[in-house]
Specification:
Layout: E1 6-11, H1 13-23, H2 32-35, E2 44-47, E3 55-66, E4 70-75, E5 81-89, E6 94-106, E7 109-116, E8 131-136, E9 141-143, E10 146-154, E11 157-163, E12 173-177, E13 186-189
Parallel strand pairs: 1-3, 2-4, 3-5, 4-13
Antiparallel strand pairs: 6-7, 6-12, 7-11, 8-9, 8-12, 10-11
């Protein structure tokens, strides 16, 4: 199978519904408790199950994943070749923002406002207490911190409290994991 260069979207209604459910907080504060269990229903984008000797040549192609799904599946197959393409997610499984304002600093706790990137709005019930990272662009390093409180303000802003010895300041980057990829990008299982 030869795929011409270009950009292709892999999605299903189920994949988009799963991502929406995570962002709406329907899978609780820890979506992994729901999604990472045997029997959880999921979509497969391109399935090579049972194939023998198939070549999938997609030089110059980019596949954009829309939703939480398993984009490529190589199960119970033999001598299958995938080549030449890249994969990315339309909505990343994390949010990125920047510290825009320091509200209060007391001892080793700093309260600040984060403005999120326009491509990753959150919802009022989006799980906010998962995994966080604060990045100092001046030193190109992660800031060691704990985050006892992250509060929704609106789709593009949140208030964060960080416990850290670092001097947090506007311009620091803030990352928040919403969910790990719900499935591998390319599952290789029982393949030869």
């Amino acid at each position: 199978l030869i795929v011409p260069p270009g950009t292709y979207t892999l999605t299903t209604e189920r994949a988009r519904a799963a991502q929406k459910a995570v962002m709406n907080g329907e899978y609780t504060e820890n979506p992994q408790d729901v999604m990472f269990k045997p029997g959880y229903p999921y979509s497969i984008g391109i399935n090579f199950a049972g194939q023998i000797g198939t070549r999938f040549l997609a030089h110059g192609a980019t596949f954009l994943i829309d939703g939480f799904m398993e984009p490529f599946s190589l199960t119970n197959c033999e001598d299958v070749e995938l080549a030449g393409f890249s994969v990315d997610c339309i909505k990343k499984p994390f949010c990125r923002g920047w510290v825009t304002e320091i509200c209060e600093k007391k001892d080793n706790q700093t309260e600040f406002i984060v403005k999120l990137d326009e491509n990753c709005p959150i919802m009022e019930n989006t799980p906010l207490m998962r995994r966080h990272l604060l990045w100092n662009p001046d030193t190109s390093s992660m800031v060691l911190a704990q985050f006892p409180s992250v509060t929704y303000i609106d789709p593009y802003h949140m208030k964060v409290v960080a416990t850290t010895e670092a001097h947090v300041q506007p311009g620091f980057e803030f990352y928040m994991i919403i969910s790990f990829h719900s499935r591998p990008i390319i599952l290789v299982e029982y393949a030869q």
